[in-house]
Amino acid sequence: MLKDVDATLLQTPLQDQLQDQLQALGDTPAAQYAREFIEQLRSQVQTQQKQIKFEQTKNAALNFELARLKQWRFGKSSESLDAQGGNPQTQLFDAKTEQLLVEESKAEDRAEDLAKEQARTPGPSRIKRQAKRQALPSQLERIEHHYEIEPAVCSAGHPLKRFGQDISEQLDCVPAQFFVHRHIRGKYACTCCNTVHVAPMPAQIIDKGIPAPGLLAQVIIAKHDDHLPLFRQEEIYRRSGAFIARSSMASWVGQCGVQLQPLAQALREQLHQQAVLHADETPIKLLSPGSGKTDTAYAWVIRSSDLETTARGVVYELCNSRQSQHAATLLEGFQGSLVCDDYSGYKALFKQQPIQEAGCWAHARRKFFEAHKLNQSEIAKEALHRIQQLYELERQGALRVLAIVRADQSLDRY
Questions:
Q1: 368 with 378: CB under 8 angstroms?
Q2: Which of 59, 175, 361, 389 has the most CB atoms at less than 10 Å from its CB?
Q3: Please, which residues have CB within 8 angstroms of residue 106's CB and are 6 or more apart in sequence?
Q4: Using CA atoms, how far apart are residues 204 and 211, in angstroms rounded to an integer?
Q5: Which helix (DSSP H) or strand (DSSP E) does residue 23 occupy?
Q6: Please, which residues have CB within 8 angstroms of residue 218's CB and are 6 or more apart in sequence?
Q7: Paired sense of beta strands 187-190 and 337-340, if any
Q8: Closest by Cα among 267, 399, 383 to 330
Q9: 208 backbone dihedrals φ, ψ, rounded to 5°
């Protein structure tokens, strides 16, 4: 009878029928065993269902992560909602574009085959299509060189009459030219007071230093804006006839940083007076002196909002770590809204200082974009449409601000 109960368990999934059959068995050992066996099966089924649900959730997460990595590696970088191909016009445009690319590729192949055939076949030289030369900028200085025929007679001895001229232009440059400022100060003596007076020198960035302001500006801009290390600048300047040791230039950069510190502090205080600021940090490689290796440093930055109409600015701060204390120092005294990402260092800042958090929509939108692109989530699609409406409001506000700024600039001219 136990075998019959097992067969019924496998064939009849309805619980009421199982209960009726077990009650018909009574309290016999076989019935008791059947009840325990059914409980074991029920427990195993529940455990397997939980395991299957866990594996399905895990597989879905892994598939989503794999699709996102493929998108990062091989997909388009655009996060535009219309760039996903959901619009039939977009699909039609892509199909037409692909067909045009195929036709252009075939035309290029035919032209290449024709060129090879002409190269093998002897005949008149082929006419090359010359690229159209762009005009040189009109604001550049023009140095004129005049050439005339001397004597102005032809081969038969007849005089030539000038009726015009042919003008051609070449672009040239002068390598870094070094020159020396000689400061000649007159010395005067008072025979009555027995004193000597010397004309004062103009204020210098580095007192009693060799570099003039123009050279200091060149070294700093080349290093920090053109990313030209000092040892390369040393080689470039040597070719121009001036040897400047990199150690000297390093000292100049440091002294200029000290002199510019009040200006940087004033700009920071001006930014702290604004209602909205943007903040971010990015890792950079920093040379470790003496070790021959590089360490990871962080460039912190705060900037004014694009909707700011009066005073716009950007302040950078180079720090050796990403600790929240650097953000606290950079934003000390600021009491407005801070637009930033979800980095925990800013979270601690919001607890310590009276700053209102304004999350970055670009970071928040990216998650909805990935969910819609990879899983076709309708909820994520609706979120993207609503964010797009917010972007449109921001764009209209930016256009109004731009109009105000241009109006102010026009008034300043008068």
A1: no
A2: 361
A3: none
A4: 9
A5: helix 15-25
A6: 176
A7: unpaired
A8: 267
A9: 60, 25
Phi–psi pair at 380, nearest 5 degrees: -65, -35
Lowest mean pLDDT among 23-32, 121-130, 235-244: 121-130
CB neighbours of residue 270 within 10 Å? 15
CA distance 279 to 395: 20
Give per-residue pLDDT as tens, 176-216: 889 999 999 999 999 898 899 999 988 899 988 999 999 99
Question: Which amino acid, 386?
Answer: R
Q: What is the pLDDT of residues 271-310, one digit of tens each?
A: 999 999 999 999 988 888 778 788 899 999 999 987 777 7
Residue 54: C-alpha distances to residues 24, 50, 66, 220 (Å): 39, 6, 18, 59
Q: Is the pTM of this model over 0.85?
A: no
Q: What is the DSSP letter of 53?
A: H
Task: Name the pairing type of β-strands 356-359 and 195-198.
Answer: unpaired
Could you tell me how far CA 81 lies from the centroid of its own chain? 21
> In which residue are the tokens 């009693």 written?
208
User: Could you give the CA distance from residue 266 to residue 285 in angstroms, rounded to a whole number?
Assistant: 28
Residue 349 near residue 324 (C-beta atoms within 8 A): yes
DSSP-based three-state secondary structure for 300 = strand
Is residue 317 helix, strand or coil? Answer: strand
Q: Could you check whether the bond before residue 211 is cis, i.e. omega within 30 degrees of 0? A: no
- pLDDT for residue 343: 86
Of 3-17, 54-68, 82-96, 203-217, the range with the highest mean pLDDT is 203-217
E-strand ranges in 83-161 read: none
DSSP state of 319: E
**Of 207, 220, 224, 209, which Cα lies nearest the Cα of 253?**
220
Burial class (CB in 10 A: 0-12, 13-18, 19+), 18: middle
